[in-house]
Design goal:
Length: about 240
């Protein structure tokens, strides 16, 4: 989930590609706010003049950018036409001592072939039973096969029905979670603004307008990013 995910900023070409794609889709939030302000004849020109020095706005902008990165990562991880082993690495496994750890910490997860995931439990053989159960109960809809201290998962080919379901999930669940995260950033920042500018109502008003504009712009970008991914999912697999 977006709110529970951990940002992994790696240097791989695939990650750079998605972040670059996100950057292309995004417009400058501050620039967007300034442009919108200029188009409103009734709004004073100075409404968005000091955003660069406004810590509330700048911190909110950083949080929005972080959530947008998480959105791209979530789509890459769960709604890709290719097998992404991170879907398996992130599955939580309950150990004998009652603690839970991600699968990546109790087994070596690799791709044996383009449609087969291999999980080696040689270093933690006692965890294989609960790991197998956790995989079966996950949303991946796969059945692992065991050979000694190794689990194998044959990933089913991408059917039309599965693509349609994934596209529906992307438009529904992921988009709702993204919007919820953006709205929380707006609400938290608005409260900080009210407290920080309690004696300066004009500054509080300017900040609130900027935050609201940023929120709407982020929601539009999120819609665009997800719609692009839905189109990719619904294409015929070559």
């Amino acid at each position: 989930m977006i709110r529970l995910a951990v940002v992994r900023l790696t240097q791989s070409a695939s990650r750079r590609q998605f972040i670059q794609h996100q950057h292309q889709l995004s417009t400058s939030v501050v620039g967007y706010a300034k442009k919108k302000a200029e188009n409103k004849k009734k709004s004073p020109p100075a409404v968005f003049s000091n955003l660069d020095d406004n810590t509330v706005v700048q911190n909110a902008l950083k949080e929005i950018q972080r959530v947008e990165t998480l959105l791209v990562e979530e789509l890459t991880r769960h709604f890709s036409l290719k097998v992404d082993i991170r879907q398996y690495e992130d599955i939580m496994v309950k150990l004998e001592n009652g603690k839970e750890k991600p699968l990546s910490m109790v087994a070596r997860v690799t791709l044996k072939s383009p449609l087969m995931v291999m999980m080696n439990f040689q270093d933690n053989p006692t965890a294989i039973k609960t790991a197998k159960l956790a995989i079966q109960k996950s949303t991946l809809n796969v059945t692992p096969q065991q050979e000694g201290a190794v689990l194998y998962v044959n990933v089913p080919p991408m059917s039309k029905e599965r693509r349609e379901k994934m596209a529906s999930d992307a438009k529904g669940r992921i988009l709702n979670e993204y919007k919820k995260a953006i709205n929380e950033i707006y609400s938290t920042s608005d409260k900080k603004s009210s407290a920080e500018f309690s004696t300066r109502p004009d500054e509080a008003k300017k900040t609130r307008e900027a935050l609201l504009t940023m929120k709407h712009a982020a929601e539009q970008r999120g819609n665009l990013i997800i719609e692009e991914r839905r189109k990719q999912l619904l294409k015929q697999v070559v």
